[in-house]
Amino acid sequence: MNNNSKLETEELRTCLHIHLYHPDQANCPLYHNLPLNQPYKMDAEDPLRLGRDGQTCIFVLNDTSVSRKQLSIQAYRKAGSTFLSFMIQNMSQKVKLVVGGSELRYLERAELDDKVLLRFGRYQLLIWQEPGDSANTFEVLFETCNTPSSQELGIDVPCKLPVMDTGVPWRNLENGAPASQEPLESDETVVLV
């Protein structure tokens, strides 16, 4: 059997892309136990466990603020579907897990959306799914981000001053104080005083 035939018959696996961010990641070896930037094959029946304890978790974060067992992600199939879906469970009694804005307490579960932001402690994990055909296996791909995933998604980003078409920041000041909170309508001409 040549390599082309082998590639044609091989099933495409669902891939969970996990983008990691922690504000101290440049200074601390938080991820040195993770297989960064290389897909890791998992059996669909085995849960993906992330935490501090290398004996109970497949993926280990080198951080004492992380629980021994922080979270678990389990693959499953919905009735009548050939595609894998995923559930997440908070395994920590001390650290809350926020999934897409909803808090999960100890042992609570939630279904993962196709793209979702997870937060626990000072960590942010952006997880997105790349669908595949295999019902028995999936892949996990860990990657680091230089900026918080919440910033990429526009969550918790402070609003900036609006800028008029002239490129001048909009300020409605009268004697140094805002004159009105309501927007002013004007035509195309701008008069600068």
TrEMBL record:
Keywords: Cytoplasm, Immunity, Innate immunity. Pfam families: FHA. Signal peptide: none annotated. GO terms for cellular component: cytoplasm. The keyword Cytoplasm applies. It is found in: Cytoplasm. Residues 49-121 form the FHA domain. GO terms for biological process: innate immune response; positive regulation of canonical NF-kappaB signal transduction. Belongs to the TIFA family. This is TRAF-interacting protein with FHA domain-containing protein A.
